[in-house]
Amino acid sequence: MAGSAEVLLDDARRFAAAATVTGTDVTLDIYDGMPHTFHLAMLSGMPLTTTATFLRRLADWTPRR
After folding, report:
1. Nearest partner of 1 among 43, 23, 33, 31, judged by Cα
2. Domain spans of the chain, in order of start
3. Do residues 33 and 4 touch, judged by C-beta distance below 8 A?
4. What is the pTM of this model?
5. Which residues make Cβ contacts (< 8 Å) with residue 35, sequence separation at least 6?
6. 3, containing H or E segment
7. I need a labelling partner for 25 at 20 to 30 A (CA). Which of 2, 51, 57, 64 fits?
8. With b meaning 16 or more CB within 10 Å and e meaning fewer, what string describes 6-44?
9. Cα(7)–Cα(25) distance, rounded to whole angstroms?
């Protein structure tokens, strides 16, 4: 996952593309307008809706791995 305002967005895209070439199943979720480590907003006690969405998607993904 990465935010669209992520400092490392291009790196995340390149990493996902390289992993795909090797046959790895890749899903790169890009969250519109979010900066680097936006998911840490949950630590503030007032998480963003986007943070909750990310954590829900991560929880859904984890058992499949």
Report:
1. 31
2. 2-64
3. yes
4. 0.76
5. 3, 5, 6, 7
6. strand 2-3
7. 51
8. beebeebeeebeeeeeeeeeeeeeebeebeeebbebeee
9. 24
Taking only the tens place, the pLDDT of each residue in 4-53 is 999 999 999 999 999 999 999 999 999 999 999 888 877 777 778 888 88
pLDDT range class, residue 65, cuts 50, 70, 90:
low
6 and 12 in contact (C-beta within 8 Å)?
Answer: yes
Q: How many CB atoms lie within 10 A of CB 51?
A: 19
What is the residue whose two structure tokens read 């680097």?
Answer: 36
pLDDT of residue 17: 98
- How many whole angstroms separate alpha carbon 1 and alpha carbon 53? 11
